Amino acid sequence: MILKLHERYILKNFLYNILIVTGVFLVLIFILNILEEIKFFESSETEIKFGLPLLLTFLNSPSIVFDTFPFIFLIATQLLFVNLYDKKEMIIFKSYGINNLSIIKTLLISAIFFGIFISTVFYTASSSLKNIYLGFKNKYTNDNKYLAIVNENGLWIKDNVNNITNIINAESYSNLNLKFISITSLDEEFELIHTISADKASIGDDLWLLKNVKKFEPNKKNEYYDELSFKTNFDFEKISNLFSNLAAFNIFELRNLFKDYKSFGYSTLEIEGHLNRLYSLPVYLAIMTVLGAIIMFNVKFNKSKIFSIISGTLISVLIYYLNYFSNIMGINEKLPIIAATWFPYIVLSLICLTGIVRVNEK
């Protein structure tokens, strides 16, 4: 597609403003995040150098910036129009027959393409850095002896209780119960203490109740129990929280994780919601861009331009919370997850269309 001169000019300035606003957000995020990391390490008994909080901040900042892109696009759009109005370029556009709708069309298409790039290339890079960040951070948390993952073979947990390492595997999950589980317990020298297998384990708290249990110890006869209590550091809530940071997975990893969760019987709603938010990001950014343009077209420029930008930012915050509560309703199964993701965008699109109808009158 060959761009016209005015389209190239708008695109160039729009991209410039996006980069400037992103840079400002990045600096603010970097400052706030490094203070948070320093505070985290103040409570750590391990002696650390200043370079570690700096490194962790560098690794974590891109994923935070990713979440702020809707705000960035709206503010960048408003700044673009501030510059166009200040330089009287809107008057020049109109004198050459370039109407407001044509400008919005250029911004809309640009925002969609930028959104595709951000939701694929940028997100893949930020999720990789987030994964490294969590790996570093885990070394300095109180839970660094514990590990839990879900893969095609079910749930795997590495636990440590009273200097005994327990390797736990469960084939499936249903209603706060793990099914068909095996537990291998090792001493500090990683010598086998015993192996336990059970048909089911209730994991409502950290004292699991195993049912239909078979226990094997070296050089002893097998023991059988109808029920057996087993102490762990994990309960349902803790296991759930271990998989809540989906920002550390790229799209392909999320799709594989979705399949693993589904085969294990674990709720896939959070993953579905996260994937749908990634797929819909170009639309979200396009809506925020159009909304920013409509706001600026309806501004009387004898009023404060700063006031206009603040008003737009407040609107974007309201939209953020609309999205947030809609996603919560999807995860809690009050709405289908696809409807929870797309409903706010449909409402916003209708609002934007109403604004666009009048935009050429300005």
Task: Outline the structure in words.
The chain has 362 residues and is of the alpha+beta class. It folds into 2 domains: 229 residues, no CATH class; 87 residues, no CATH class. Helix content is 61%, strand content 18%. The chain is built from 9 helices and 7 strands. The protein has a 7-stranded antiparallel beta sheet, with helices on one face. β2 and β3 form a beta hairpin. α4 runs antiparallel to α7. The two termini are 29 Å apart. The mean pLDDT is 85.
Helical percentage: 55-70%
Strand order of the largest sheet: 1-2-3-4-5-6-7
Q: How would a crystallographer describe the biggest sheet? A: 7 strands, antiparallel
- The helix-and-strand class reads alpha+beta
Unreliable stretches covering 5 or more consecutive residues: none
The number of helical segments is 9
Whole-number tally of structural domains: 2
Radius of gyration: 27 Å
Q: What is the count of β-strands?
A: 7
Q: N- to C-terminal separation?
A: 29 Å
Shape: elongated
The percentage of residues in β strands lies in 15-25%
Assembly state: single chain
Order of helices and strands: HHHHEEEEEEEHHHHH
